[in-house]
Every structure is written in C-alpha cells, then in structure tokens.
Amino acid sequence: MPQLTRLRGFQDQIGPSAEALSYVESAFRSIVELHGFREIRIPILERVELYQRSSGETSDIVEKQMYVFADRDEAETIVALRPEGTPGVVRAYIEAGLDRSDPEQRLYYSGPMFRRERPQKGRYRQFYQFGIEVFGRADAACDAEVILIIDELRRKLGLEFRFEINSIGDGNCRPQFREAVYNFGKAHYDQLCADCKNRLERNPIRLLDCKTDVALMADAPKSADYLCDPCKKHFGQVKDLLKAGGVEYVENPRLVRGLDYYTRTTFEYVGTGLESAQNALGGGGRYDGLVAALGGPDTPAVGLALGIERILLALEAEGATPASPAPLDAFVVDFAGGEAARDLTAAIRRAGFRVDRSFDGRSPKAQFKAADRSGARLAIVIGPDERAAGTVGVKDLHEGGDQETIPVEKIVDDLHRRLG
Ligand code: AMP
User: Fold this and answer.
1) Torsion 55-59-63-65 (CA) sign
2) How far apart are CA 47 and CA 66, in angstroms?
C-alpha cells in the first residue's frame, strides 16, 4: 500500500515541537489569567459570511486564503475553516447576549487557524495563534493594558521584538485622512504598482502598507497628522501609559488597517532576528465598529493576536529555544515480579512524582537501559531481596554514585529530599 503523507503546509507536532507550542501557550495563559481574562473556545468552522463581513471582501484572507466548502446539509451552507480568531469571538459575544447582559468582557483564546498560503518557513496552512479581546471599554488604559500583557510575555519568554504603534483615527477624522491619501495616490498614479492602482479607488488607505511602493509611501500623508482632538488625546494617553509601564515603542505611520471598523490604536510586533517574510509575530488594535458590523450594538473593543510558531522561530533565532520539559523523576526497575513494583509506582505517582516502569519482565540490564533512555533522574530498584526486607534501592542516574538502600515507606520522603 502506498504510504499516506500529511498535506502541504500542515505539520505534525511530535514530542518536543508540540511541547514548545504548549510552553508558549501556557506562559500566555498564566499572564492573561493574572489580569482576570476568561477563556473562550469558539468553533473552528463558521459560515463564510462571518469572515467576509469582518475581514472584508478585498482582504488577502477572504480573496484567496480561506478553506471554503459547501456543507452537506440541505441548504448547502458555505462554511470556512477559521483563518483568525476575532470574528468568531465577536459573533459569540453577540450571540450569547453578552452585549446586553454583561458588555464588559475580557476574553482570551488559543488554537489552530487555517490559511491557504504558499507554505514556507514560518508560514503554514495550519498554524497556532493566541489572542485577547476586550469588549465594552473605550479608554486608553485598556489599549495600554493589552499591550502591557504582551510585554510581560516578552519578559517571561525572553523574547525580543520591535513594537510598532500608530493611530488611524475614527469615523470623524479618518475621511479627511483617506482623502489625503487618495489625492496623494492620484498625484503619483504613474508610480503606483498594479495592486495599488487597483486599490486607489476601493481602499486608498491600504496604499500605505504596500510592500512594493515602500519608497514612494515614505512621503505619503500620515494618519497622526489628521487625528481629531479626541483621537489625538487618546493616542497621547496610550503612549504615556506605555512609557509609564516601561514599554518601548516605535511610531510607524505606515501601520494602517484598510477597514472602517478599525479605529484609533493599531500596533504590530516585529521579530528582530527574523527574515522579513516571516518576521510578523502578531498585531492588534482597536476595532470599535466591529461588533456593530456583525449585528450587535455599538460596542468599543480592542484586541490582539500572535502566532505561536513565529514566537518560537524568534526565540530560536535568539538562541533562546525553550528547554524540553524535565524528563521523568524516576523509573522503577523491577525484578521482583510485578505487584510490588506496580504498587510502588502508584504510590510515587500519588505523591506527585513523574514515574514510569518497564512491564515486560525484561532483564535488569535491559530495564536499566530503558531507565537511562527515559531520561529519568533516579532508578528505583525492587528485587526479591528488597521485597523480602521491605526496602528499595535508589540510584541517581544523572549524578552516578552507589545505589542506596532505604526502607520502602521512606521512598516519598527520599524523593522529596533528592528532587527538591
Ligand atoms: P494576522 O491575523 O495576519 O495579523 O496574523 C497574526 C499573526 O499570526 C502573524 O503575525 C503571525 O505571527 C501569525 N500567522 C499568520 N499567518 C500565519 C501562517 N500562515 N503561518 C504561521 N503563522 C502565521
């Protein structure tokens, strides 16, 4: 039979690579939980309209990256694998009636996302993201808090990145900015790339983050120069709070979002040691118009998402790859015939130590080999003599030295003493 292989852009995460993903995820969880965020788990499959309405018909995600198919129900509902977390979280927030019962919500999620991109290093078709969303708060302190959370994660992981921030204004001041960019694009029409010529009428603000016309856009209008007073004040407060929190930032006027529901603060995390094709670690900002765009009431919101594989690549580039979790604490080497070893192993596990044993009556030599291979710190030896005497042998496999004999009822104390 021919062997079946995984699909392109999809990865198996076995042992250390899966543990590395979990390591980043649990660092993130422990920090957001300290800030009082609650977990949300949302479906991986949703109606395609959800993403069309929230990411926008002209976004790369909706235009070319979604896995879309017709369900086999009567209505042949068109569904999509989620390419990002925010739309589902917002839908769930509205659908659960939280906008009415308890509009202020602080939620976090973590899980796989799917985008049909051209696979390469750091760019996969299934990848992992975690993110947070805060609903019902319009104040600058809230923008600053979500940014500070990622700063705490940076410190916890020893991660290095450049944090870039901008403000794109709101429904009041953005039309003027949009018009200024449009006029700039018109005046330089001949120099625009084909994509930007296309975008100019539909979505001129996106000219600013064009990857091709970088030099030209250096002279383009800057959103910060067009902010109305309330937006200027908000942006100033966010920056003051970041300074007070010791967060280093770089203002990047090219950091914009093309969709109207994004307001005010936008930011991005750029991995400093990574190639530009995969140096985006994540980003976020305010989206005060999204809840309404998906059918809820006007509700301010701010959020962010980061890619876990990218964080791991950044750590690897710094030489700060997370250590695999410590191996087993102990391995029971049994040549007494089963029951005593079984009970001893169970008692050690109940005391909270990680312990394994060999089951198939192999020779002591083979069992010691298995103990070494398992990476366990200690071998706990139980043979007919030990069983008769009510003792066990303990040997430190990492440090070497002689095997010690101790009364069996002292084993848990001995493990505490040795393993701390
Ligand atoms: P985005 O929603 O496009 O801003 O993505 C947020 C983050 O998810 C990015 O900054 C990356 O860290 C990560 N990400 C996005 N697409 C991929 C992908 N195809 N493979 C791996 N990570 C990705």
Assistant:
1) negative
2) 12
Q: By three-state DSSP, how is residue 282 classified?
A: strand
Token pair recorded at residue 362? 């192999």
Q: Specify whether the CB–CB gap between 111 and 41 falls below 8 A.
A: yes
CB atoms within 10 A of CB 158: 11
Task: Give residue for tokens 């029409």.
Answer: 189
Task: Show Cβ contacts of residue 75 under 8 Å, excluding neighbours closer than 6 positions.
Answer: none
Ligand 1, atom 16, lies closest to the CA of 123
Tell me the best of 127, 132, 290, 313 to mutate to test the pocket of ligand 1, counting ligand atoms within 8 Å of each CB and taking the most.
Answer: 127
Q: Mind listing the pLDDT tens digit of every residue in the chain (420 residues)?
A: 899 999 999 999 999 999 999 999 999 999 999 999 999 999 999 999 999 998 877 778 888 899 999 999 888 999 999 999 999 999 999 999 999 999 999 999 999 999 999 999 999 999 999 999 999 999 999 999 999 999 999 999 999 999 999 999 999 999 999 999 999 999 999 999 998 998 898 889 989 988 888 888 889 999 999 999 999 999 999 999 999 999 999 999 989 887 778 899 999 999 998 888 889 999 999 999 999 999 999 999 999 999 999 999 999 999 988 777 667 999 999 887 778 889 999 999 999 999 998 777 788 889 899 999 999 999 999 988 998 999 999 999 999 889 999 999 999 999 999 988
Q: How far apart are CA 280 and CA 212, in angstroms?
A: 17
Copy the structure tokens of residue 73: 């129900």
Within 8 A by CB and 6+ apart from 176, the residues are 226
Planar angle of CA 212, 217, 219, nearest 5 degrees? 155
Instruction: Pick the atom of ligand 1 nearest to 84's CA.
Output: 2
Which residue is it, tokens 């569904």? 79
Cα(42) to centroid(ligand 1), Å: 18
Locate 241 and state its tokens. Answer: 């709070």
pTM equals: 0.90
Residue with token string 């030896």? 381
Rounded to 10 degrees, the C-alpha dihedral 120/313/90/33 comes to 160
Distance 362 CA to ligand 1 centre (A): 49
Q: Are 167 and 266 in contact (CB under 8 A)?
A: yes
- Looking at ligand 1, which atom is closest to the CA of residue 305? 6
